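Sample A.
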Amino acid sequence: MSDCSICDGVGLVRVIDSAGRWVSRPCECQEIQREERRLSAARIPQRYRDCTLDAFDPSYPRADDSLARALLTARRFVDAYPVDTAGRGLLFVGTAGLGKTHLAVGVLQRLVRERGVRGLFCDYRELLKNIQNSYNPQVNTTEIELLKPVFAAEVLVLDDLGAQKPNEWVWDTVALILNTRYNDRLTTIITTNYPDLPAGGGELSDSQRAAREQTLGDRIGDRMRSRLAEMCIRVEMKGEDFRQTVKRARFG
């Protein structure tokens, strides 16, 4: 039981109903506890626990207008969920330090708190490493046990898509995750540091290809990039790295 001062930890309060009778009702502390359990189950890393939509500030000096538009899109998405979003998610695209993960987690936290969704935060690179590690016969966790919550989450945040060096196994795993969630019409919120452009460089020399900026198509394959266009609303964020500009200026 809780240490709630209203219900004295029993989870019930006595109130008078519309007929003038004393009845028992669940205390508000019960819903707060359920909310906290849902947030804990979402596995949001401690460093992102304070990343709410209200805490996102797009108005710092030299901030690009796209940041304010991204925040507005995130708020509207929460307001529209789930009826008007129809299983679609969000794809936050932009270079490092613009607040993509902040907004993704902010949306997840709002949906968990206000809509009671079963959400899950998943770091893309960490997930792939854990899956690879599951192939070790000395590890008890299996691949399907790792993927089951990723497949089942009502709302999944897949952070830093494309961070893992691509190969056929990576592409197959990404395809399995995205196609499963697409077919089940489950909401996926994704962040990536790579521009949402097709793979390229086929006609370039090795040196030219090495110098060219990698794209999301390069990292996950054009087939899955096309799938994302069906699954998610793209939210492009531009500007300078917040961590390298504003925070450095604050602390000298």
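Sample B, a different protein:
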Amino acid sequence: METEEKKYPEVFQRETSRRGFLKGAAVAAGGAVALATVGVVKPVTAKAAESAKPAKIIRHLFVERQNCTGCRGCEFACSLFHEGVVRPEAARVHVNKYKGIVDIPVICWQCEDAPCIESCPVEPKAIYRDEKTNGMLINNDTCLGAKCHKCLEACPAQFLRAHPDTALPLTCDLCGGDPECVKACLAQSGNPQGPCIMGDKVGFGVNLAYRDVTPEEAAEDQITNFFYPNETGERREI
């Protein structure tokens, strides 16, 4: 019997106000992201290597915050890809547990105006954008690391943090256009609840609206939405 293929939730018409963004969910494209297959590494021909590339380059990430279950598969997959070991504190994506109640995924919004790049005092900039994938990259040789961290301060989404060993900014390079967090989240998602982290080749500018919602604001809104009223009909105090 064929197994049912997991798919992204359908895209619905949503509010575009800041409150609308707080309440909900990102505008994300449909289509399923293929799961990575683990196997023995073998030499491949140029033609085979070309066919192994993702069908489309993912240039933007999105989140459906209410779908996050706190599994942290995204952190595991990201750190394994970049560090070679499962090490959540070195992951480029991270999940915040707020008040011990809700889990909020914190991602790079790939801002079009890139405040992190603008804040870098080094010339040429130590943090820069990969024009092909839209991922944010770091020049390890010129970045001032712990002596600066102006990019961490400038990040409006409070996404950027320092590597626990090198103190270099943990920027999201989108895994070369095939983000591991997206695949891990899809693999862990349930039915009918879909994944919380998704990606697409276009961003529709939604990232610029989302980035002004801090993780704390998003968490407070999630708590308001999640908890049932008490006997008087009012929201329970947390």
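Observation for Sample B: The two ends are 46 Å apart (CA to CA).
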